[in-house]
Design brief:
It is a single chain. This protein has 185 residues and is an alpha/beta fold. The protein is built from six helices and seven strands, in the order αββαβαβαβαββα. It has helices spanning 3-20, 38-41, 62-72, 95-106, 125-131, 171-182, and strands spanning 27-29, 35-37, 46-52, 77-83, 111-112, 149-152, 158-162. Helix 3 links the parallel strand 3 and strand 4. It is globular. It starts with a helix and ends with a helix. The relative contact order is 0.19.
Length: 185
């Protein structure tokens, strides 16, 4: 076997391992500054991961996201908001500003991570993996705008991706969530 073929085989093997591992196996920080491993924190849960912003036309989606959290949280659904300022600079605030805005305006109680980039060279590793064709072949592609949604099953695998305009309480999102919640571990 040539050195190049060996290297190509090793790279393929590595990307296959990454793809099979939980995409949620990343460390992030909450708005409160607490470091968390998403795979450990959300082990056995169905997760709806959403990149969010406070000054966007889609910002009212916080309300149905919180309603989903309230309705399905006890059944194992975790809503995770991930602020990003990459789209129209619509999330300019500090972690404290974001937390206060979400609580005051939408009563948000679901988990919120610290502000990150979701596209480009400085994108958080989680989002690099989510958007990569190699590691997420079913749902690859750049994040298009604020409030793009990824649904993970209880094993931490992406099972659906919804556009920013798709409302969190739309029949298609609710049906996908309920389908995954029905699959008990």
């Amino acid at each position: 076997m040539t050195q190049a073929a060996s290297a190509a085989g090793a790279a393929k093997s590595k990307s296959e391992k990454i793809a099979k591992a939980s995409i949620l196996d990343h460390d992030m920080e909450t708005l409160d500054g607490e470091k968390v491993n998403l795979a450990k924190k959300y082990q056995g849960k169905v997760v709806l991961l959403v990149n969010v912003a406070s000054k966007c036309g889609n910002t009212p989606q916080y309300k149905p996201l919180e309603a989903l959290h309230e309705k399905y949280g006890k059944e194992g659904l975790a809503i995770v908001g991930v602020p990003s300022n990459q789209f129209g600079k619509q999330e300019p605030g500090t972690a404290k500003d974001i937390a206060e805005f979400c609580e005051k305006n939408y009563g948000v109680k679901f988990d919120m991570m610290s502000k990150i980039d979701v596209n480009g060279e400085k994108a958080a590793p989680l989002y690099k993996q989510l958007t990569s064709k190699e590691t997420d072949p079913k749902f690859p592609g750049k994040i298009t705008w604020n409030f793009e949604k990824f649904l993970f099953n209880r094993d931490g695998q992406v099972v659906a991706r919804f556009s920013p305009r798709t409302q969190p309480d739309s029949p298609e999102v609710v049906a996908a969530i309920e389908k995954e919640l029905a699959k008990k571990k």
